[in-house]
């Protein structure tokens, strides 16, 4: 939905297939022990829209009040993702759903938001217990290969012990040790669109 008039946005074939495969992973999140997989669609393939399509399908089709934490590692990506969800009508500009600090993130995750947007850097509260114990919390980690191995990622996992995690990437580090590590953390590739 644009600022001037509503527009219909339709998934392209790779998005349709990828979202349905990822939806199955979310349905099987208990069996997968929270490792929903890696969603690898090449840069420019519409990963932000795929995230929105997937989250919306989960909200429509699965019981439970799911919250999706849309996690990035750079402010410009966070803003871009947030604006995409505003444009699609999933959140409104006035919604308080973007974390401004670690304490604010913990507060947001303690409430019943459909979407929360944050930088991974907001998992900076040491020794303050979990941010959330909810099992219907799904983390979409954008650029999954970059920031998922260090201290902040370990703090995030400790802060969200019952959450399920899906990694999104346009540029996996194929053949590099980080690729193996990404799959160890998130699970195998759930959808691949690499041209």
Main features:
globular; 36% helix; 195 residues; 6-stranded parallel β-sheet; 6 helices
Describe this structure in words.
Strands 3-2-4-5-1-6 form a six-stranded parallel β-sheet, sandwiched between helices. Helix 1 crosses helix 2. The chain is globular and about 45 Å long. It is built from six helices and six strands. By secondary structure, the chain is α/β, with parallel strands linked by helices. The protein has helices at residues 13-27, 47-61, 75-87, 102-110, 151-159, 177-186, and strands at residues 35-41, 67-72, 115-119, 137-142, 164-169, 189-193. The two termini are 29 Å apart.
Shape: globular
Helix % is 25-40%
The count of strands amounts to: 6
In DSSP terms, counting alpha (H) and pi (I) runs of 4 or more, how many helices?
6
- Tell me the span between the first and last alpha carbons: 29 Å
Whole-number average pLDDT?
Answer: 88
User: Could you state the order of secondary-structure elements as H and E?
Assistant: HEHEHHEEHEHE
Largest sheet: 6 strands, parallel
Q: Could you give the order of strands across the largest sheet?
A: 3-2-4-5-1-6
Q: Which class best fits the helix and strand makeup?
A: alpha/beta
β-strand amount:
15-25%
Radius of gyration: 16 Å
Low-confidence parts lasting 5 or more residues at pLDDT below 50?
none
């Amino acid at each position: 939905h644009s600022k001037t008039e509503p527009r219909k946005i339709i998934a392209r074939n790779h998005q349709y297939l990828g979202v349905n495969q990822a939806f199955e992973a979310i349905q099987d999140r208990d069996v997968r022990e929270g490792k929903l997989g890696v969603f690898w669609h090449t840069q420019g393939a519409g990963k932000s829209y795929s995230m929105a399509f997937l989250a919306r399908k989960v909200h429509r089709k699965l019981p439970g009040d799911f919250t999706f934490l849309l996690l990035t590692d750079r402010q410009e990506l966070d803003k871009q993702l947030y604006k995409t969800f505003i444009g699609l009508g999933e959140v409104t500009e006035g919604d308080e759903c973007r974390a401004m600090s670690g304490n604010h993130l913990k507060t947001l995750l303690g409430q019943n938001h459909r979407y929360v947007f944050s930088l991974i850097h907001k998992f900076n509260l040491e020794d303050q217990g979990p941010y959330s114990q909810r099992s219907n919390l799904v983390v979409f980690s954008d650029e999954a290969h970059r920031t998922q191995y260090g201290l902040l990622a370990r703090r995030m996992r400790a802060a969200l012990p019952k959450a399920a995690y899906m990694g999104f990437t346009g540029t996996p580090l194929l053949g590099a040790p980080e690729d193996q590590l990404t799959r160890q953390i998130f699970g195998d590739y759930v959808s691949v669109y690499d041209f």
